[in-house]
Specification:
With about 775 residues, this protein is an alpha/beta fold. About 30% of the residues lie in helices and about 15% in strands. α21 links the parallel β14 (about 500-505) and β15. The chain is globular and about 75 Å long.
């Protein structure tokens, strides 16, 4: 199809002046790659500005509004009215973007229709939820965060981008960077857990991974979501209101979004929730004053699904037109799915409720993204069937998926060193509803992942052991139904085995969007099945697959070993076999605390001090009278097949003149296995002008230590990172005494007091 010759000529000249580079021909999915410290900035030229202004001069008001409207692909391509509907919208230039269809053939067909019937031939922007892989499914983000391996998370995001862009996608709605302190919330599975410092590092890595070769057809535009504080809904119920102090908002929930801006993220998604009474989708303070004016974000903002029309349900707009006006004036550039901009904004302009300056600013942001993607030069630039066929599910991708799955697992219990299992074991009873399941192991948001590609636990064990062992599989029970009819078969298999591997957990869609849970034990009768297996007297190794922290006292009591595997994706079974049989020594550490019971929630590790702390005896104090003040498994916790001994750490008594403090500790691997250990550094402000947390993660380093060897680990603490935000949204670093804590998790820590004497170096924080 031909596009407008004048527009094409300008676009081609601009593209040439931008010196668009060919796709890199190096190793496509490196295991380790240095993460750039600075976001890759696209080159903006006069030609780009001239092209966009020239195009906007030709656009009608309706066509401009159309660029701000996003539609669901299936509504345009399927159903008896689809062709009439989409052609009508396309002819009027009313579709700026389409989401959630993928594949070169489908996307080419839609783009060709657009280029044929639309007046100005403005290409459509294609978006998709690429959360943890496209066809090759990597571990869910919460699982992968437990690797504490930033290079790995960069690599899997990069690989997902290469695979998805090969299917014609330009833009992903990821990463989700919401801090989540409540494991009842189902979408905790999509983020990096409960800690802000770690969450910022992971947000940066994932943005840079998706955008590794930004504007080229083997990368994606990333989208930071959900702006803002979506991970703090009341009672852990998805979409519920968020009510918190401004200092908590600024200190705990906003920094990961700012980290995305600093990493060069190109788009943001507004959240469903309100913050202190103002819905995020209609908040000018969030979307304009903070995001654009204070943080300097230059990209565009899209709503979440139907979030604009929901302003009416939230009670801040009386009708659809009012909701559209509120959102656009707040700074929401693109309306996802509900069509309210197309339906009402033109009339609002006539009535003086929306200015042309507001519309033009939003249109320019979206057209700029399309220009930089090269879509005006070639609308089909991402649509290469040969590349699609050779990129998806490649051997390199499979190896990366397996490595990511291994590194995401967390060993929670290993009584009597039952793990790793010996490869000389002869009889294995493999029990549980997830032991031979392909679909559930991908977790929620599986994009275009196909169950037939998933290696189950049963198949992974067979791949590992071949014919050397007899594996007896019995499902035993369902995920959630009360039926115990399968218990007898499972117990019989266990009684005849040398060891029992019980694969228990949640269905994939027990976590994810709109999947909040009030009870966090294993669903159904799984805990009863575990107890019955324990009664056989055989060693029970429990493998957990779930999308959130669970309350596991009964599981702990019924298991000799517990391996938290989360949802590991395509290579689940092979990776699990690697860990269970010692070909990989587990190195994961929890990024979200596991409670004893739901009544402890919120149960995050970095709670603020109280005047009556919970360690006081025989006194009214911060406590539950029926449960101790502790998590079952704390933040940062994770066991290994080896033992790491920490020598006393060293650091100076004061921060240096540049506000730096170098912490050094010698760690010895005194066990019988090589392994990786994540050394963690926490800081506590002893006296401050506001109540401060008992401890906060402020540094970490993951290091490989061969058995019998000692390594010296150095971690630098920056005084700019140990300040706090006031309720006036001002960042302060106050001189005084701080406690430095070093150890393998947030509880087992050495301590030393140091002094910060000056703050002349202060850069006034990130936002």
């Amino acid at each position: 199809m031909k596009i407008n010759a004048n527009l094409f000529a300008i676009a081609l000249a601009a593209a040439m002046s931008c010196n668009l580079q060919a796709v890199a021909a190096d190793t496509p999915f490196p295991q380790k790659q240095k993460i750039s410290k600075k976001a890759k900035k696209p080159k903006t030229t006069v030609d780009e500005a001239v092209f966009i202004q020239s195009l906007m001069d030709k656009m009608t008001l309706r066509e401009k509004i159309g660029q701000l409207s996003q539609y669901v692909g299936r509504d345009l391509l399927t159903g008896p009215k689809s062709e009439t509907l989409s052609d009508s919208l396309l002819q009027e230039g009313m579709i700026g973007s389409v989401l959630n269809i993928a594949g070169v053939k489908q996307l080419r067909a839609l783009q060709e229709r657009n280029m044929k019937v639309s007046r100005l031939k403005i290409p459509i922007l294609f978006a998709f939820d690429i959360i943890h892989g496209y066809k090759t499914i990597f571990p869910t983000p919460l699982a992968e965060s437990c690797s504490w391996d930033l290079e790995l998370m960069y690599s899997t995001a990069k690989a997902a981008a290469m695979e998805a862009s090969a299917a014609g996608i330009h833009w992903t709605f990821a990463p989700m960077v919401d801090i989540a302190r409540d494991p009842r919330w189902g979408r905790i599975v999509e983020g990096a857990g409960e800690d802000t410092f770690l969450g910022c590092k992971i947000a940066e890595a994932r943005v840079k991974g998706f955008q590794w070769n930004l504007w080229q057809p083997d990368a994606l535009m990333a989208c930071a979501k959900h702006f803002a504080a979506y991970g703090a809904p009341q009672a852990g119920r998805d979409y519920a209101p968020v009510d918190m102090s401004m200092s908590t908002l600024a200190e705990t929930y906003l920094p990961p979004y700012k980290a995305c801006v600093d990493a060069g993220v190109q788009t943001f998604m507004s959240a469903f929730n309100d913050i202190n009474g103002i819905p995020a989708t209609g908040s000018k303070w969030l979307l304009t004053d903070l995001l654009r004016d204070r943080w300097g974000f230059k990209g565009f903002v899209v709503s979440d699904w139907n979030a604009v029309v929901q302003l009416k349900t939230q009670g801040v707009a009386s009708d659809d037109a009012g909701a559209a006006v509120m959102a656009l004036n707040a700074g929401l550039d693109m309306d996802m799915t509900d069509g309210l901009y197309n339906a009402h904004i033109a009339r609002a302009v006539e009535q003086g409720k929306v200015s042309m300056a507001v519309i033009d600013a939003s249109v320019k942001r979206i057209l700029t993204a399309k220009f930089r993607l090269g879509l005006f030069e070639d609308p089909y630039r991402f649509l290469d069937e040969k590349r699609e066929q050779t990129t998806v599910k490649s051997p390199e991708l499979m190896e990366l998926a397996r490595d990511a799955a291994r590194k995401s697992m967390v060993l929670l219990k290993n009584e009597g060193d039952v793990l790793p299992l010996s490869k000389s074991v002869r009889r294995i009873a493999l029990i549980g509803p997830l032991a031979n399941d392909q679909n559930e192991l991908m977790g929620s948001w599986k994009a275009r992942g196909e169950a037939e590609d998933v290696v189950t636990v049963l198949q992974g064990l067979k791949n590992k052991l071949g014919n050397s062992a007899t594996i007896t599989y019995a499902r035993g029970c369902d995920w959630s139904k009360p039926d115990k009819a399968g218990f007898a078969e499972a117990v019989k298999a266990a009684g005849e085995a040398d060891v029992v591997i019980a694969v228990m957990g949640e269905k994939a869609l027990f976590s994810g969007e709109s999947r909040s849970r009030a009870y966090l034990n294993l669903p159904g009768v799984q805990e009863e099945l575990l107890a019955a297996l324990r009664q056989t007297g055989k060693k029970v190794v429990t493998v957990l697959m779930n999308g959130r922290p669970l309350a596991l006292p009964k599981v702990v009591a019924s298991s000799d070993a517990i391996l938290e595997a989360w949802f590991l994706g395509t290579q689940s079974g092979n990776a699990l076999a690697d860990v269970l049989f010692g070909d990989y020594n587990p190195s994961g550490k929890l990024t979200a605390s596991f409670p004893y019971a739901e009544g402890q929630i919120p149960n995050y590790y970095n709670y603020k001090r109280s005047g009556r702390p919970g360690d006081m005896e025989r006194s009214s104090t911060v406590r539950h009278i029926d449960l101790k003040n502790a998590n079952l498994f704390p933040f940062g916790f994770g066991m290994s097949y080896t033992r790491y001994d920490y020598a006393p750490f060293s650091c100076s008594d004061t921060f240096d003149a540049n506000g730096k403090l170098r912490v050094s500790v010698r760690v010895t691997n005194s066990g019988q296995h090589d392994g990786e250990e994540t050394v963690q550094v926490y800081v506590a402000d002893k006296v401050a002008s506001m109540v401060r947390p008992v401890k906060e993660l402020k540094g970490f380093k993951k290091v490989f230590i061969p058995k019998g060897k000692t390594v010296e680990v150095e971690i630098e603490i920056d005084a700019n990172d140990i300040g706090f935000w006031t309720n006036e949204m001002k960042y302060v670093v106050e001189p005084g005494e701080f406690t430095i804590m070093v150890g393998p998790d947030s509880e087992r820590l050495q301590k030393k007091d140091v002094t910060l004497t000056d703050t002349h170096f202060l850069t006034h924080g990130a936002h």
